[in-house]
Design goal:
This protein is of the alpha/beta class. It has one domain: Alpha/Beta hydrolase fold, catalytic domain (Rossmann fold). The protein is built from ten helices and eight strands. Strands 1-2-4-3-5-6-7-8 form an eight-stranded mixed beta sheet, with helices on both faces. Helix 5 crosses helix 8. The longest helix has 17 residues.
């Protein structure tokens, strides 16, 4: 079966003049799967074993959201603007329908597409996905640093939020070979073990460099978007959502995922004991199989 190669730096000029970047992996003749990266992240974020997508006949399209990687920043953008970008890319690639997957901070973008364009999506999947933070108890189970960060974002002007992330962007630019996501000792064992794997470290490093290619502006704007009202209600999404989540996730705690699962009109949740935020790395084959079915 043929594989896609040298397709990690593709760009599309959108109708408003912005550039949207994307990458392709897997089987070029396979079923299209649009993958929405986490936060921080980029089009380079994926499972390290590309052969899984090839074997299952999946044509994976990963997309830099505005301001990440090679995609232009979009001032004042909203979460509900994303489906328009996705629709333009699908049209350019001559893709009428596609499966869609959102990981972590990309989960809300998947839900925005399921709300806005359900007829285009053959299956909708959220992996370790963030949920709305406007209900009591939404942050229970999060690490103290996560709760503190969200609290700060909610209380200060968004321009000031940038100050918290610029040092990370500078560090990545100054020493890209040392770039890596910080995994605290308090993280679940599954997450610490995942990020200790060399093949995951290699992809994570390249992904982080791309995420901060343009500085921290895209990261802090996304945090603002995800911690304020999204522009749609979970109750108004009538596309079936497949939800995968680890029971020991401390980045997006399972109680938040359970709230999403019970609020969505049509959701098939799967919760895994012993798994953390890196659930995807252990269950990618199963996730992709369900997404393609």
């Amino acid at each position: 079966m043929p594989t896609i190669s040298n397709t990690t730096d593709k760009v599309l000029q959108l109708r408003d003049g912005r550039v949207l970047a994307y990458a392709e992996y897997g089987d070029p003749a396979g079923k299209p799967v649009f993958y929405f990266h986490g936060l921080p992240g980029s089009r380079l974020q994926r499972h390290p074993d590309d052969s899984i997508a090839t074997e299952l006949g999946a044509h994976i399209v990963t997309i830099d959201r505005p301001g990440f990687g090679l995609s232009d920043f979009q001032p004042g953008r909203k979460l509900v603007d994303w489906p328009g970008d996705v629709a333009q890319l699908a049209y350019a690639l001559n893709i009428d329908q596609f499966a869609a997957i959102g990981l972590s901070g990309g989960g809300p973008y998947l839900l925005a597409c399921a709300y806005n364009m359900p007829e285009r999506i053959t299956s909708a999947t959220v992996i370790s996905g963030m949920g709305p933070l406007d209900w009591p108890g939404s942050m229970e189970g999060m690490t103290p640093s996560m709760r503190l960060g969200i609290g700060i974002v909610r209380r200060v002007p968004w321009e000031l939020v940038r100050l918290a992330f610029e040092p990370t962007a500078r560090m990545v630019h100054l020493n890209p070979t040392a770039a890596k996501k910080l995994v605290p000792n308090s993280a679940p064992k599954a997450d610490r073990e995942a990020f200790a794997r060399p093949e995951i470290q290699a992809i994570d490093r390249k992904d982080l460099i791309e995420a901060f290619r343009n500085g921290a502006r895209a990261v802090y704007w996304e945090i603002v978007l995800l911690t304020t009202p999204w522009g749609f209600r979970l109750e108004d999404i009538h596309k079936k959502i497949h939800l995968w989540h680890g029971d020991e996730d401390t980045t997006v705690p399972p109680n938040l995922a359970r709230y999403v699962a019970r609020t969505l009109p049509d959701c098939e949740p799967r919760f895994y004991p012993g798994e953390g935020h890196t659930l995807m790395y252990n269950y990618w084959r199963e996730i992709l199989t369900v997404a393609l079915s």
